[in-house]
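Tip: read the tokens left to right.
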């Protein structure tokens, strides 16, 4: 029996986990039960995601048009960062590739050479994704998969997290998941092994199981409280520890990107959905009181507020291990960084995928000379190593946004600029500043293009660039850059607005590929 604990709708961890495991293990003889507290209501403030969620939905067999209708979703091409480098400065961290590669090198390598000679050049002139975001346009790579620019577009979604949880619940139930609405009042452990034996429920018999998945949010009822796995704080690197969120009426323009606007004690998000806008203020409680944050958020909204603000308190960090004994924590129960790069739902998705790949079978050892305990521990160790590496990579990426600032207008930003950063991030910055290179592996959440987006957007430029770009003469480089610019100029006017594309998607219509041929 697999058991998920109560999952707040704004986190969606429980139903994402149940739906994915039910899909992957369908027909394998497992019984999956999800316990959800009836006392946890829908928060519904809007949620932003990153591109891998499109693959997760495909794995579940979800049709995009149905998903977007039921979650009131919009498309997301990236994040606009306003006032992070300096007040008045902005840039877009766009998903997907910069331009089209040539001679085996991504476009951004040539861009590093180009901006040394043309410091006023604007990346939006050469990046279809950035240009699309700024002009309120949208296109899917499926519309013209052979087009060299369009095929490099990547996108994610803005969605109503409560509606997404309901959507996944219906999907999971159709695959045979048992839904128990009750409160967990205790956890029973095996006396000899310390493994979880059962969950004691308020209104039902104790629920026994072989494997347990903790989706109980920040409380971490199973992994943290029952199994006593300690929490490692990263607040010395990430000072924001509060967020206040409130939905407002829908904006007149549905931008195809999230906005993250920095303020003197943190930043503020704006997430456009079909039916409303998700808003939130993230801040350091050392610099801003909760009431001041609530007032600031409400006073900044241009539309009417649809619900009372909700205050969320968190400590950036992670559990020392994500899989302990026969329990895996997924979602906020395993750790939380902060919402800046919209990775919360992705970390749920990644953990579920990792668990399906490393899930312990009943007959663990094919070679009977190897004990099942050894195999179990090897799986657990591998899971924890991968989870640790992933969340620390995301942590470093988010810290980058704060330390790469020229702002000195408040104590918060002065402290951010003076942070002593993790060695792993320091090594990456040293490599980029000295050579213009960003090293990453295929398992990293954020690619070299993502890092390059933020590094250049925040004003960090390398001293040089890879010598491989010198295979192009000055004239060839000029022609190459002109072709890139002209390609963007040629495609952009023929693209639909985000609003029109969204309407077509909801009606299951597609943009005509013939209009966007290479």
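Filled-in amino acids:
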């Amino acid at each position: 029996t697999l058991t998920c604990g109560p999952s707040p709708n704004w986190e969606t961890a429980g139903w994402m986990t149940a739906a994915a495991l039910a899909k992957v293990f369908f027909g394998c003889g497992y019984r999956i039960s999800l316990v959800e507290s009836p006392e946890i209501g829908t928060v519904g403030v809007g949620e932003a995601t990153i591109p891998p969620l499109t693959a997760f939905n495909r794995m579940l067999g979800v049709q995009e048009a149905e998903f977007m209708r039921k979650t009131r979703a919009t498309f997301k091409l990236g994040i606009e960062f306003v006032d992070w480098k300096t007040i008045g400065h902005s840039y877009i961290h766009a998903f997907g590739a910069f331009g089209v590669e040539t001679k085996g090198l991504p476009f951004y390598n040539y861009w590093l050479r180009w901006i040394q000679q043309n410091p006023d050049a604007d990346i939006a002139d050469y990046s279809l994704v950035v240009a699309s975001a700024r002009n309120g346009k949208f296109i899917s790579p499926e519309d013209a998969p052979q087009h060299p620019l369009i095929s490099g577009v990547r996108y994610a979604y803005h969605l109503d997290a409560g509606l997404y949880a309901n959507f996944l619940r219906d999907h999971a139930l159709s695959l045979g998941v048992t839904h128990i609405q009750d409160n967990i009042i205790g956890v029973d452990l095996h006396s000899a092994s310390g493994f979880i034996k059962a969950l004691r429920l308020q209104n039902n018999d104790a629920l026994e199981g072989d494997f347990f998945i903790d989706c109980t949010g920040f409380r971490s009822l199973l992994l943290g409280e029952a199994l006593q796995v300690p929490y490692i704080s990263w607040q010395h690197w990430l000072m924001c520890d509060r967020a206040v969120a409130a939905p407002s009426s829908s904006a007149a323009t549905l931008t195809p990107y999230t906005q993250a606007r920095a303020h003197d004690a943190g930043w503020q998000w704006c997430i456009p959905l079909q039916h409303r806008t998700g808003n939130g203020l993230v801040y350091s409680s050392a610099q801003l009181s909760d009431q001041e944050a609530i007032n600031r958020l409400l006073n900044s909204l241009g539309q009417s507020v649809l619900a009372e603000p909700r205050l969320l308190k968190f400590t950036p960090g992670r559990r020392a291990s994500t899989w302990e004994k026969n329990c895996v924590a997924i979602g906020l129960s395993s750790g939380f960084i902060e919402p800046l790069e919209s990775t919360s739902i992705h970390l749920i998705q990644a953990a579920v995928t990792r668990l399906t790949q490393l899930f312990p079978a009943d007959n663990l050892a094919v070679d009977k000379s190897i004990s099942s305990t050894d195999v179990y521990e090897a799986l657990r160790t591998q899971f924890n190593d991968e989870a640790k590496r992933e969340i620390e990579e995301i942590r470093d990426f988010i810290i980058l946004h704060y330390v790469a600032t020229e702002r000195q207008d408040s104590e918060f930003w002065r402290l951010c600029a003076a942070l002593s950063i993790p060695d792993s991030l320091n090594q990456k910055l040293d490599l980029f500043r000295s050579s213009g290179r960003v090293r990453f592996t295929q398992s990293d959440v954020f690619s070299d293009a993502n890092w390059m987006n933020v590094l250049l957007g925040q004003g960090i430029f390398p001293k040089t660039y890879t010598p491989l770009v010198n295979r192009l003469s000055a004239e060839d480089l000029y022609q190459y850059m002109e072709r890139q610019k002209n390609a963007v100029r040629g495609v952009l006017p023929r693209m639909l607005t985000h609003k029109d594309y969204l309407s077509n998607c909801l009606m299951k219509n597609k943009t005509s590929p013939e209009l966007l041929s290479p």
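The first strand starts at residue 2 and ends at 4. The two ends are 52 Å apart (CA to CA).
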